[in-house]
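Recap slide: Putative pre-16S rRNA nuclease, sequence and predicted structure.
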Amino acid sequence: MGGTPLSAPQPSPNTADLPPRPTRGRIGGIDYGTVRIGVAIGDLEIGMASPAGTYSRRSERLDAEYFCTLAREERLLWWVVGLPVHLDGGESQKSVEARRFGAWLTQHTALKVDFYDERYTSSQAESLLQEANLTKKRRKARIDALAAQIMLTAYLESGAKGQDNPGSIG
C-alpha cells in the first residue's frame, strides 16, 4: 500500500468549518486485515448495517478496482475503517496499518474515511457464528464480514461519528 505512514492521528479540522454530513445514503464498513478484509454496507437513514462479504487481497491494482467498483455500485458516501486498539485505548501496530489502509482507500476511491473502535468485534462475531452451529470453515468465511457489520452498526448507533482517537473503555 502506498501513502505516508499515519503513526499518529492527523489533526482534525474545526468541525464548525465542515458542511453538515448527509443523514441519508450508504456507507461502507471495513474490518481491515492484511490477507482478508471484511466489508459491510450501512444505511444512514435506518441506522442498520449488513455484511457484504469478505475480500481476499490480491494486488494493489485489483484491490483498488474492487473498492472503487464497490463504492460506485453501492453509491457510498464514505468509509468507516475499524481501528484495532488496546484495552487502554492505545494504538497498536495493526492500528497504524488500518490508518494506512484508510489513507489508501481515500486516495483510490476519493471518499473520506472515518475510523471507529473495533475492540471485541471479531470475538463477538466468532461467538455469534458458533451459536449458529456453523462449521469452522463456514465461520472463517463469514467472520470478517460479520465483524465489519458489528463495527459499522456500532458506528451508526453512535450517531455516525468517527474517532481520531478512540480512547479507553469507560
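The chain has one domain: 24-157.
Helices lie at 60-74, 93-109, 121-131, 136-157.
(End of recap.)
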